[in-house]
Amino acid sequence: MGEDDFQHQREHLIRDELPQLGIQDEAVLQAMMSVPREHFVSDENREFAYRNAPLPIGFGQTISQPLIVAYMIEALQLSSDERVLEIGTGSGYAAAVLSKIAKEVLTVERHPKLTASAQKRLKRLGYDNIRVFQSDGTLGFPECAPYAAIIVAACGPSVPPPLLEQLELGGRLVIPVGEKQGSQKLVRVTRQAENEFKHEELGFVHFVPLVGEAGW
């Protein structure tokens, strides 16, 4: 499959499918249009890069369904001068999309091989406002806190307290919460004061477990 084929599939997914499924934020749609998802999936799955479905990337992890990536990023309500922390780098796809909207993206991955491959991939593709770290994402990344937005690409049993602590005033956290394999809800938490957080439920989702000290 050639680059023109991928471009056509990308345009169909982002211009036609995603808006019909409720994605309205033009900045999110433009960001997704500019990121070639075919470079963030395995070679054997490249032909499926623009199916609106998750795909395996190894180590029991997946690259999320494009609709979910768009929905979660839309829920962050980002502006171009903000810094974002992503928990669960995976192949680097969501970080690449985030980098087209936010000023800077820090992304944390617990798997060493996924961390290394994402670092190489993002550097090769020219994403110079993304920093990738290997760490326990359930603890956030306090060295560079606070953050205007935090996005978590795995489901925790509850919202990890370290992530709440690393939100700046007015900051937003989007995370799936629930059972490992059962009912999970996408939640947005907004820091309204030092010890005051607003929780909103955004719908039902299905993610891999968030593994770590403050997760499963």
Structure in words:
- 29% of the residues lie in helices and 28% in strands.
- It is an alpha/beta fold.
- The strands form two sheets. A seven-stranded mixed sheet has the order 5-4-3-6-7-8-9. Strands 1-2 form a two-stranded antiparallel ribbon.
- A hairpin with a 5-residue loop joins strand 7 (167-178) and strand 8 (184-193).
Helix-strand blueprint:
Blueprint: H1 3-20, H2 26-34, E1 55-58, E2 61-63, H3 66-76, E3 83-87, H4 93-99, E4 104-109, H5 112-124, E5 130-134, E6 147-152, H6 161-165, E7 167-178, E8 184-193, E9 196-205
Concise summary:
This protein is α/β, with parallel strands linked by helices and 216 residues long. The protein has six helices and nine strands; from the N terminus they run ααββαβαβαββαβββ.
Mean pLDDT: 96
Classify the secondary structure makeup into a structural class.
Answer: alpha/beta
| SS element count, helices | 6
| Main β-sheet, spatial strand arrangement | 5-4-3-6-7-8-9
User: Any low-confidence stretches, pLDDT <50, length ≥5?
Assistant: none
> What's the β-strand tally?
9
Largest sheet: 7 strands, mixed
Order of helices and strands: HHEEHEHEHEEHEEE
Q: What is the terminal separation in angstroms?
A: 40 Å
In angstroms, what is the radius of gyration? Answer: 16 Å
The percentage of residues in β strands lies in 25-35%
Share of residues in helices? 25-40%
Shape: globular
